[in-house]
Write a structure and sequence with these properties.
Number of domains: 1
Structural class: mainly alpha
Oligomer: single chain
Number of strands: 0
Number of helices: 5
Helix content: over 70%
């Protein structure tokens, strides 16, 4: 994909949803760091591990977002994987001691939309790009 004008609407919607997911994840990670610095955590090693994993996930999703916006073929698989992870979390949020219907629905709706759009013809065609060889 050479420029933004060639991006189909479906891909633009995916990128907006993905950006919102990244922003929410960043906010959650910042909350973890601030809670740790304020001493409001029960287990410091656990919170540090969660914050570190959050930063690693943010880096991976950031690279995936960039590749998806550039039309890289592999980014569809990474995006699909992330949406499936969110669906698994959503499924778990419907049951158990801390069940929360709003979280479950808030994860399911965008994930299903992104998955459906990933398999649409225009998005599939727009994400066939390969990384050029660097000499």
């Amino acid at each position: 994909m050479a420029d933004k004008a060639t991006k189909p609407l479906g891909l633009k919607v995916i990128l907006v949803i993905f950006a919102l997911e990244l922003a929410l994840l960043l906010g959650l990670d910042i909350t973890y760091v601030l809670a740790t610095l304020a001493g409001e955590v029960k287990s410091l090693p656990t919170m540090l591990a969660l914050a570190a994993l959050g930063l690693i996930l943010l880096a991976w999703l950031g690279v995936t977002f960039r590749a998806l916006s550039q039309g890289r073929r592999w980014s569809r698989n990474a995006t699909l994987f992330w949406q499936l992870v969110q669906l698994a979390v959503a499924w778990g949020s419907f049951t158990g001691q801390f069940a929360n219907l709003a979280i479950g629905i808030g994860l399911i709706v965008p994930s299903v939309l992104v998955i459906a759009l990933l398999f649409s013809r225009p998005v599939f065609a727009a994400t066939q790009g390969e990384i050029p060889d660097e000499d």
